[in-house]
Design a protein that fits this description.
395 residues, 13 helices, alpha+beta
Length: 395
């Protein structure tokens, strides 16, 4: 297993950790990375992402949210400090490795076997890229309706079907895959969870071109793909429960970093509002409202992760609030920037959802209301699990 850099302490005071990360960022974050990465081809983007992961890992900041034995071990307060300082330094975001470092790692840590963890967690830190094969053309919000089929044949499962909206699948070597193993069972009880090697015969990936010109979403076609039975996560037909752990990671723990990045975007918005003259009363009022919402988001995130017993309702509240606040903020940035802000400027792919190119960021913000369960689904979860409303009231 790769080791953390020497001299780092997980018990360091918050102030000392903040100084430590701030000094590290001053030395290691490339000052002109946005300009240099704007408009680069896909291969250069992938190279840059792998390089930045190695830099973060050497500094001890790639996986602060993992357990100590796997290279992390920071508590929530210290994780927040690390992400806050990386955001303040405008460090690149690990877009290519997002699923790997968060979704795949959380799944392996929560439900994987010892062998699966030993095989994959060190490889993820070393740059192994994962994607998520959950949604299908007719099973997005209603994920339990998925029809991709896995049939047990001796020591392997043979999988046939199609997945869609798989972020990063064109570069992934592994996939978190949901497939139906018992078509006669109730739909949530006949699903199994697999680790699928994307290099397996029968796997075909087709990128989907988006309105922004990017192609990080992909379709995956599976034709007689063989997955070793050893790659089953949890028990057969119990994949739905494991999938909820993956999705709750998307709605919960990963939001620490996203909330801090949104706070960085808000600072850019304030700078934009003061660019030519002090803002008028209307703009100042909008900024004050957004400032309150950004702080509320950060508080929601910390409460959600500090209280795992809150379950899906708390995580869904965070995801819902973040996605809609992202839309409101980037839309206001588009209004403030006027026509110059609508130029067809190329956004550096490593910037994520807040790049300061307000129109492109606003268009991109809409995708956040869909993955991990649409916002309509999140409201249903909040109603059922958070407010205790009966299903018939919500239907």
């Amino acid at each position: 297993m790769m080791q953390r850099s020497q001299g780092k302490s997980r018990d360091v005071s918050l102030d000392a950790l903040r100084r430590e990360v701030r000094d590290w960022c001053a030395e290691h974050v490339p000052p002109d990375w946005r300009r240099e990465q704007a408009g680069v081809d896909h291969d250069e983007f992938v190279r840059f992402q792998h390089w930045w992961l190695r830099e973060l890992d050497a500094g001890g900041y790639a996986v602060p949210h993992w357990p100590a034995e796997w290279g992390g071990g920071y508590d929530l307060a210290r994780q927040a400090v690390i992400y806050e300082e990386l955001a303040r330094a405008d460090a690149p975001r690990l877009v290519l490795h997002f699923v790997s470092l968060h979704h795949a790692a959380a799944t392996l840590l929560a439900a994987g076997t010892d062998e699966q963890r030993r095989r994959h967690l060190p490889a993820i830190r070393a740059g192994e890229v994962w994607c998520q094969g959950f949604s299908e053309p007719n099973a997005g919000s209603d994920l339990a309706s998925l029809r991709t089929r896995a049939e047990r044949r001796g020591d392997v499962y043979v999988v046939n079907g199609q997945k869609i909206w798989a972020s990063g699948a064109r570069d992934a070597t592994w996939c978190l895959l949901l497939a139906r193993t018992d078509p006669a069972a109730p739909k949530r009880r006949g699903i199994s969870y697999f680790l699928m090697d994307m290099r397996s015969p029968g796997v075909t990936v087709r990128p989907i071109r988006q309105i922004t010109g990017e192609e990080h979403f992909c379709e995956i076609f599976l034709t007689d793909v063989e997955i070793p039975a050893a790659n089953l996560v949890g028990a057969e037909n119990d994949g739905w429960r494991t999938a909820q752990r993956t999705l709750n990671t998307e709605r919960g723990a990963t939001m620490v970093e996203l909330a801090e990045r949104l706070a960085l975007g808000f600072r850019w918005l304030v700078e934009l509002a003061h660019r030519d003259a002090p803002p008028d009363a209307y703009v100042a009022d909008r900024l004050a409202g957004l400032a309150s919402e950004v702080e509320a988001l950060r508080l929601l995130v910390r409460r959600a992760i500090a209280d795992p017993a809150a379950g899906g309702a708390s995580a869904s509240t965070v995801k819902l609030f973040y996605s809609e606040l992202l839309q409101r903020m980037t839309r206001f940035g588009t209004e403030l920037s006027g026509l110059p802000g609508q130029e067809a400027t190329v956004r550096p792919l490593s910037s994520g959802w807040e790049s300061g190119l307000w129109l492109r960021d606003y268009i991109g913000s809409w995708e956040w209301t869909i993955p991990g369960g649409t916002n309509e689904i999140q409201r249903t979860i909040i109603g059922e699990r958070g407010l205790g409303l009966p299903r018939e009231v919500l239907s």
